[in-house]
Structures are given as C-alpha cells and as structure tokens.
Write a structure and sequence with these properties.
Elements (H helix, E strand, L loop, with lengths): L10 H9 L5 H19 L2 E4 L1 H16 L11 E5 L26 H8 L3 E6 L33 H8 L5 E6 L5 H7 L2 E4 L19 E6 L2 H11 L29 E4 L1 H4 L7 H16 L3 E4 L5 H26 L6 H8 L6 H25 L2 E4 L25 H6 L3 E8 L5 E8 L4 H15 L16
Parallel strand pairs: 2-3, 2-4, 7-8, 7-9
Antiparallel strand pairs: 1-3, 4-6, 5-6, 5-10, 9-11, 10-11
Helix pairs in contact: 2-3, 7-14, 10-11, 10-12
C-alpha cells in the first residue's frame, strides 16, 4: 500500500493506510486536487471543482479518525458526483444551459449518505445533457474525454464519472443508469460499473430521465470498491416511491467465496452475431466464460428473448417518460437544449398512449421470462456490455442512441443487478468488458462472481498512460 502512488490506492488500500497513520485524508485530497489541475484540462471530467469543500471534508475526516470516531471504510476517501445529483449550496447543472445556475438547497440522498460516511467531495462531473443528449459540443461545458485515448468517447451518460476514475483522480464516482449509462462508460474506460437492483439505492434529489428505468450506482477501479460504496449508499427511502422496502444486503460478505458450483448462463446469441461486434470483444467474453468454468462454475449457453425486443421496449419507455419530464421546458425553451437532446426528446411528441401501454405490457412479459424462467435455472447471466471498444468522437452515431454498440438496456427494463467489468484489452490497448447479471436483490452474488473473475484475470495493473503523468504538488 505505502509504496503505491496515492492515485493507485483502492478505497480499501487507502482506508488501511489512513488507519495505520501512513497517510492523511488531507494528503490524499491535495493529491487529487493537483491531478484535477493537471489532467482535467485534457479530459474535461469536472464541471465544478469543490476545492474548499474537499479540503474541509478531508480535515474533518482526519480529525474524526484521530479522535477515534471511525464512520466506516469511506471515511476520508475523495469521490465525485455526476452533475445530476443535487448538492446543497453547490450548483447542479445537468450539463445544460437550462440549469447552468441552479443551486439546490438540499443534498440528494446519495450525496447526504456519502457526506455522513466521511467522504471527501472533489466536485461535480460531466454528463450528457440531462443524461440523454450527447456527446455534444454545443453545450455550456465540453464533453468528457476517454483517458485511454483522448480522441475517443468515455461513454454516456456518466462520462465525467468514468473519466475521473479512469484517470486516477478519484477511486469512486457516482453515475446513473437508465439504459446503460454506468455500465457503458465503465466498459469503455476499463472500470467496474455497478447498476444495482432497481429500488436498492434512492434516486431522490437526482434529476430524473425515466422514473421507471433510472438507477443510481458507482463507478470504481475494483469490485471491492463498488461493494464498499454500495454498503454506504443502499437502503430504503420512504420518500422515493420506487425505493424497495428491503434491508440493504452486506455487499462485501462472501466476496471471496468463489464460484464453485454456481450455474451461469452465457447469452452468446445477444452479441456474437450483432452488428458492429468485434472479434476481440467476442474473444474477451469467451475467455471470461472459460475462466469462470475453470474456477468451478457451470457455464452453458442460454437463449433469452431477442435483444432487439428489450432494446426497443426500453427505449420507447425511456423517451416517453423523458418527454413527460421535459414537456414544459421543451415547449417554452426549445432553443436552450443542445441539438442532440432536442432531437431525442422530439421523438416523444410522436408517441401515443397506446405505444406506451404496449411497451409496458411487453416489459412485464420480458421481465417475467428472465426472472421466473431463466434465472430460476441459473444463478447469473454472462453477456456483453459493449460490442466494440470506445469509438472516436469523429464516429459519433446519429441522434438515435439505439445505434450505439452497447447492450445494456435489458437489465434496466427488468431491474436486475448488472455489473460491467474489465475483461481484457484490444491489440491497441483499449479496454474490453463483460457484463454479469443476477436475480433481483442478489447484488452480492453478482459482485462475488465479478470479484472471482477480477482476481483470475488480474488486469488491475493496466492503467491509461495519462494516469501516470507526474501531478505532484
């Protein structure tokens, strides 16, 4: 631990060093702020840097720790928030002209929990406008860039969160996921992205995109760091109508139990003939399946309903709900939206009540098939997150987000826990990923499978070259 650069310490490593007196939160925070100063002009991850708040949070954490008041493993850990999470006294812009000067009076539930756990807020992170339109160059803030290759996209819409973690600025950043906006950026930036079970983490105080598809979750370097974060932010919220009345599980319990005897269904048909899939992506997923089988899991092909059914159903629901949320501003201030956001929201004006009802009925059938049929026979599913490595900005697809080479929407539709994690690298050293999906509220089992795969693949030493730049004060 002590001989690692600060930015390579995991939450677990940094926590141990803090408690052993080998480092202070203030030192970790000053190091992170120095990295922001040097690296962020290159990656555009931050919309707002909260330097004074961060230094105050860090000083408080050091005082608490010295006094023996240990709030848990997140105490003194620097982190970032996607700029759709409300923060009291700190602007929350949603990366949009429409909210460029909005300063909330209250923290979102997640922001409050991270504060109570002693975390150190470094700032608010870039997204796509309202988490739907982008990447765009016609907004008040530039789009975030991928630390592995600055000419490439980090994914959307938790783009700044992924870029900040991949660049080694912070160990964890919160994202949101409506159709893949945690897992896609995690895949393209070589990170772990956890979309929890629907209702496990409160969305109160987070600007909505789709009430029935939105999830909040972390992006981290390691599976354990995701589990640590989830133990802090999960739990019932009586004021979030979608919050599940279940006890938050112990996410780290059993992480190292392995996969012996688990039955894992490989949804190969989702990706192996999909348009745009690359041989390297297929090989990485196949290798992950073989590694899990070698560790004692039973891995066999499974047939799910066609991917395009899930994708079309989910996108119709998402656009209908997004349009309902934006209807007033869309009519009153249409020119204040970026072009891509405007085009995507405009589709909502053509949807009918009948369209939405049919989509909701299909959603129920698809969810029942997954949860009551497929996952009654398997402990988890293994499939692709993305079909190809991160595309260049010059290759941005048209305004129909369905054209993106990402396969994540099914698990927003079903509400299943889904984890994207590194599975290898292309010949040009761009990250590749695999996705693990579980039964509702069995997030610890999904993390356990991910932990076993992470340990076996041993990819953690691979970091983008930009993260090794000297950023010492």
């Amino acid at each position: 631990m002590a001989d690692k650069p600060f930015h390579e310490l995991s939450i677990s490593d940094a926590g141990a060093a803090l408690r052993q007196g080998k480092v202070t939160s203030l030192a970790l925070t000053k190091h992170a702020l120095a990295r922001i100063k040097v690296l962020d002009p290159k990656i555009n991850a931050f919309i707002t840097v909260t330097k004074e708040r961060a230094l105050a949070d860090a000083a408080r954490a050091d005082t608490e720790l010295k006094a023996g008041h240990d709030h848990g493993p997140f105490l003194g850990i620097p982190y970032g928030l996607k700029d759709i999470y409300d923060t009291a006294g700190i602007r929350t812009t949603c990366h949009s002209k429409l909210r460029a000067d909005v300063v909330p009076r209250h923290d979102s539930v997640v922001a409050a929990k991270l504060k109570q756990g002693g975390g150190v807020l470094l700032g608010k992170l870039a997204t796509h406008e309202f988490a739907i339109g982008g990447p765009s160059f016609d907004l008040p803030f530039p789009p975030a860039r991928n630390p592995w290759d600055l000419d490439r996209m980090p994914g959307g819409s938790s783009s700044g969160s992924a870029a900040a973690v991949a660049a080694g600025i912070c160990r964890m950043a919160m994202g949101s996921d409506t159709g893949g906006s945690i897992r896609g950026p995690a895949a393209w930036c070589g990170l772990v992205g956890h979309k929890p079970t629907y209702g496990l983490v409160s969305r109160r105080g987070v600007f909505p995109l789709s009430y029935t598809l939105d999830h909040c979750g972390p992006l981290t370097w390691t599976v354990e760091d995701s589990a640590i974060t989830m133990e802090l932010i999960a739990g019932h919220d009586a004021l979030d109508p979608a919050s599940a009345r279940v006890a938050a599980p112990q996410f780290r319990r059993g992480l190292d139990w392995g996969v012996q005897g688990l039955r894992i269904g490989l949804a190969r048909h989702f990706y192996d003939q999909a348009e745009g899939v690359t041989p390297e992506t297929i090989n990485a997923i196949e290798n992950a399946a073989q590694v899990l089988a070698g560790a004692g899991a039973v891995v066999e092909d499974v047939r799910l309903p066609d991917y395009e059914l899930f994708n079309a159903c989910g996108r119709l629901i998402m656009i209908a709900e997004a349009y309902a949320i934006h209807e007033r501003d869309f009519a009153a201030r249409p020119l204040d939206y970026g072009q891509l956001t405007y085009l995507r929201l405009m589709v909502g004006t053509f949807l009918s009540a009948s369209d939405l009802v049919h989509a909701l009925r299909l959603r129920r059938r698809l969810t029942d098939t997954i949860n009551n049929d497929i996952l009654s026979r398997y402990d988890a599913l293994l499939t692709a997150t993305t079909l190809a490595p991160a595309p260049r900005f010059a290759e941005i697809p048209d305004f129909a987000a369905a054209a993106w080479p990402v396969q994540t929407m099914p698990w927003n539709l079903t509400g299943s826990p889904a984890l994207s994690m590194p599975a290898g690298f292309t010949a040009s050293q761009l990250p590749l990923a695999v996705q693990i999906v579980g039964r509702p509220f069995e997030d610890p089992l999904v993390l356990r499978i991910g932990f076993a795969l992470e340990k076996a693949l041993d990819l953690s030493a691979n970091r983008p070259a930009i993260s090794t730049l000297d950023t010492a004060l």
